[in-house]
């Protein structure tokens, strides 16, 4: 049985765990990341990589935190690339939102005013005619026009995770793969391969992380929602924004690479198998997007995305255990929050105060459990 000591033990090498670990190591902490399988083995190892905001109306602290993180994304991912020497595939693509009814267009016009009032400076939400991107988005899919918003960006998950690993290593952090954890406790994490003593513990173990909290907090009803996505052999027009319509993302990742996804399935039989639900997503994307109509599928992916008890990420100290932090439940918005989560939790690990929205707190999620 191996034993080690460090300042910060991070459980889970998904995108949140690696981002927090890299930020803490860059601040001078001795960091060990332990991963039950391999980097990105769960929900973080997908294909889509969309970083997009919620709608700008009914503004609240969650949306403000998200918008700030998205505005910081370019600087953040450029820093990761510079420190580790690997490109995470970040692009500030913007996003097209097709409009199909007059009422949808009226709502979009109101949201343009809201975005101008609350979004970070330099980003816009504008209405365009149906044929604004006719070689990319079929005008018939946007009969009353479309929104082009510029706050959205994207990463390539299977490039971003190795980029984070490289930046973590450059900062002196350690990564142990195939190192499952059976117990998290104040000052330690333990599993069949040994024990790590640590001043701070960060639980970023994805879906498995909810069960690891139970001995400390009682049952935490986080759950998995299955997502499926595909990578298609298609070439988007130069500078094409991503598309979001009917719950489907179409994300251009470069020549002969367009990702589509994903499903949100609460019932499934095989969590890591792709099936007819993904076929339906691919067909719907092809109806909207002319370059996809004869595209071959390069890769298919499925996994369970962790959803916390409430529809927000679960971030920060555990009640009664202030030196154990949660970084769980990113679900659909976790990738976009990475710059803010890394900054906030690494500040906490350094003994500094950094406010997170109350709706992200562990206590708030525990109030909502059934």
Short account of what is shown:
The protein has 370 residues and is an alpha/beta fold. It has helices at residues 15-26, 61-84, 102-118, 157-170, 207-217, 276-288, 334-349, 362-367; strands at 2-11, 31-34, 50-51, 95-98, 125-128, 146-149, 153-154, 174-176, 183-185, 188-191, 194-203, 223-233, 242-245, 248-254, 257-261, 296-307, 314-318, 321-328. The strands form three sheets. Strands 1, 2, 8, 9, 10, 11, 17 and 18 form an eight-stranded mixed β-sheet that branches. An eight-stranded mixed β-sheet has the order 5-6-4-13-14-15-12-16, sandwiched between helices.
How is this fold's topology laid out?
Elements: E1 2-11, H1 15-26, E2 31-34, E3 50-51, H2 61-84, E4 95-98, H3 102-118, E5 125-128, E6 146-149, E7 153-154, H4 157-170, E8 174-176, E9 183-185, E10 188-191, E11 194-203, H5 207-217, E12 223-233, E13 242-245, E14 248-254, E15 257-261, H6 276-288, E16 296-307, E17 314-318, E18 321-328, H7 334-349, H8 362-367
Comma- or semicolon-separated keywords:
18 strands, 8-stranded mixed β-sheet, globular, single chain, alpha/beta, 2 domains, FAD/NAD(P)-binding domain
Describe the structure in your own words:
With 370 residues, the protein is α/β, with parallel strands linked by helices. The chain has 2 domains: 168 residues, FAD/NAD(P)-binding domain, CATH 3.50.50.60; 148 residues, 2-Layer Sandwich (D-Amino Acid Oxidase, Chain A, domain 2), CATH 3.30.9.10. The protein is 31% helix and 28% strand. It contains 8 helices and 18 strands. Strands 1, 2, 8, 9, 10, 11, 17 and 18 form an 8-stranded mixed β-sheet that branches. An 8-stranded mixed β-sheet has the order 5-6-4-13-14-15-12-16, sandwiched between helices. A hairpin with a 2-residue loop joins β13 and β14. α1 packs parallel to α4 and α2 crosses α7. The longest helix is centred in the first third of the chain and has 24 residues. The chain is globular. The two termini are 38 Å apart. The model has no long low-confidence stretch (mean pLDDT 96).
